[in-house]
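Below is how a single chain appears once it has passed through the pipeline. First comes the sequence as given, then the structure the pipeline wrote out for it. We keep one example in the README because the format questions we get most often are answered faster by looking than by reading.
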Amino acid sequence: MKPTILSPVETRELVPAIAESLSPSVWVYRFVNPERRWTLSIATHAEPGSNKLSLGGFRIAPRERTESPGFDPDHEAIGLAIGMEEKVYWSRVIGVGGPLARRDMSRIVGGKCVLEPTDDARVGRPNDFALLDWAIECFRSFEAQSGVCLTTGQDLGHGLMSDGKTQSLDYLSERFHGSMRADTSQPTGEGNYYVLEGMLRAFDIPLSRATVALIGVGNIGHHIFERLAPQGTRIIAVEPRADRRAPIIAAGHRAVTPEDKMRVVCDPIDALVVNASGASLDSATVSACVANPRLRVICGSENLVMPEPSDAGRLTDAKKSYCPTELGGMMGYLTAVEEYLANVEHVPFDMSTLFDAAKRLEPAAFDATRRQIERDFGITFEEAMKEVTAR
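Resulting structure:
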């Protein structure tokens, strides 16, 4: 099985924004199954033959993404790989990670796998096993032809398969050595929590008297909810699924559908934490954030969260502290790489090291936000983070 390989020159023509990213060299390996009409795009910042670790989740693109205007698996994989590379960059800057990842950080680069399935092959549908078997063949072919070590973790589109008993991540990990099954959402949620706590502390807002809006309360968002609720934080959740809203409401908090998102963003909230499936910070939402006099903090770990990148500058100009979601979401990839390296070296994988590592994000987020405040928001959160970590 041979992929179509797009060089960095070709991927920059496809997605010009790559040229403005931290690492403008991205390769794409595109696999197509013409009989089944499946496409798998693997984007990576790893040079061919480098033996680097290409880190990024294996995303089976959900229907809301594949049906969105202009969806293309190459574009999606490239955008997500750029975000992953930013997570790697920020983990280096702050010095966050498990012991094995910190040791091997120079080998790690960002990547992403995006599979566009047919509806009959989504996880839980009749042809899901055939889809994953084909993806595994593609993963093996990628490693053989690229000279790069592929490491994938939890992402969108996974769950219980059509036999009613097999989890898709378990099926993958048993058949491809680079597929990790650890629940990356828990350390990611923990990282989100500490970023939020540090940013609010910089504004002298304790969690006990904060009002926080959560956009998305899936695995990550619910973890944040469970960390905030005991602190006395007032929580408003925006979530499409009724079964996820129910425990929020039962605990005495407010939970609404996405149709009410703009109303929530306009409410008197102190922080907005985004962990939905993408594009939560569209231009209209950013405008509402800018106009909200009480809102101070925007953070989270949502991928492809801001369709118009220049909107980040509008938040800074309005004296809102916006932590890029690539920084806030770094703990997920760090979990996957720690598990991968532990497996390679035949040592126990210790999830607790990731929870300990996540604690480092609180003082880092506090220092960066405080620096923004001291500069009267003349610098971005990223610029502030570079300043405070360079001391």
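The mean pLDDT is 95.

See the next section for the split statistics.
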